[in-house]
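Many introductory courses stop at the sequence. We go one step further.
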Amino acid sequence: MGEQPIFSTRAHVFQIDPATKRNWIPASKHALTVSYFYDATRNVYRIISVGGTKAIINSTITPNMTFTKTSQKFGQWADSRANTVYGLGFASEQHLSQFAEKFQEVKEAARLAREKSQDKTELTNPALNITSHQVLPSPIISSNGPGEDKLFRSQSADVEITTEKERLKKMLSEGSVSEVQWEAEFFSLQDNNNKLVAALHEANANVDQWKKQLTAYQEETESLRQRVAELESQGAHDSSSENNKEELNQTLEELELLIKAKDEEIQMLKSQKCGRWETEGEREETLQKLQELEARNAELERRLHLAEQTLAETLAEREKIQNEVTKVAEIMDVKIFELSEIRQGLAKLVESN
């Protein structure tokens, strides 16, 4: 089947400093993928992490390994074959717990695989099994001879190696806590620094944009002020138009009264024409006078119509100018409000910097 991945996670990888055995050396600047692999052919479990083309971690798990949590987001284990100690910094406590649980499972599986392999060896080599059971007690029974001295030296060396291993584990477990915390705090501060730098660049870009927008608003405000001045001058002209309007109204009233009087005179002449026309000459004169009155009446009506049309156009133009003045005033209010907000934002940004 070959070697297959059974679990993967991401973490910052560290190795213990071989010179001091106390400080951590980061294996990469960024988090790497750390995976558990199982080799079905050799029945072996390994932890592997690759950075680029280089294997950062290649640790074969044995039953005597121990994964230790030294903080909420950091854990470590010692690999005697690689003669080093690996440390992993995780993004959260949950990722650390998952990795530790999987380490315990793989460690137990490695132990069972070793026991199964030993049982298989004993079954396939019964003579070796018997010999081992017969040879082990013999040095204890003998009281004199070189065999007892050899066993004593072997047991003494094993005790020293075990004591040295325990001392090394305790030193790494206790003495590396502060270094791990410092390393974690360093990476946290580095991330915060990168975020602050990015925020500062963004703020500077926003400041440049606000300055450009402020300049555009100032130019637009100046043009609006000029437009308001023009409209005010037109409003002054409208005051003179108001006077003209009053004069036109007065003229219209006079014309209406005059037309009304002429209509009455025409009606009176028409009612009296039959009784008062004594001669043909008087009739012709009266008819001529009547035609003149009708022509004058028509002229007055035409002037009245023109005056009414001029008055309507003047009122429409005045209403249009008033609407435009109102619209410009509203736009100026909005621009002045936006301009004040931009100035406040710039002031706050300057104070924060």
